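Supplementary Methods. Inverse-folding protocol.

Structures were first reduced to a discrete structure-token string of length 155. This string, shown here, constituted the complete conditioning input.
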């Protein structure tokens, strides 16, 4: 019987560690889902409905920034993880070192394709248009941070 409390406390520590290490992702996704739910039941022609639609695009950008910079790499960018030193240059190294830009370009192209085939004045068309803008801004920031600096910034 003495193993059960120890096993429970190990599981509880693991859950707490998981929540601590991923709390920003979890909360950001939760907030995005909240905005989506509120927008579904709102009238986009009202100020509040319009706000919810804009919040979806903004928080989509937050979620992609948090998750993509956690998973992907961009050589030279201060905003992304550093590629591992043992990255194989000959095969996947170049792709891996620029995986953040590749991800943003590919997913951004998908958002653009979706937007082109939607009514831009429809309820979700406006949201997707704002997401395209958000993706462009995020990609631009990744590219700009490869060469440019800002005094008194984190980096």
């Amino acid at each position: 019987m003495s193993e059960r409390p120890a096993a429970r406390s190990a599981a509880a520590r693991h859950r707490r560690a998981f929540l601590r290490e991923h709390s920003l992702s979890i909360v950001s996704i939760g907030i995005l889902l909240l905005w989506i739910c509120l927008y579904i039941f709102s009238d986009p022609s009202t100020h509040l409905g319009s706000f919810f639609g804009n919040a979806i695009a903004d928080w989509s950008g937050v979620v992609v920034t948090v998750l993509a910079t956690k998973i992907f790499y961009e050589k030279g960018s201060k905003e992304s993880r550093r590629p591992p030193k043992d990255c194989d240059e000959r095969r996947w190294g170049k792709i891996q070192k620029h995986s953040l830009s590749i991800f943003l370009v590919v997913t951004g192209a998908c958002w653009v394709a979706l937007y082109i085939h939607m009514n831009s004045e429809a309820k979700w068309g406006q949201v997707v248009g704002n997401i395209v803008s958000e993706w462009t801004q995020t990609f631009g920031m990744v590219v700009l941070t490869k060469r440019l600096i800002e005094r008194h910034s984190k980096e």
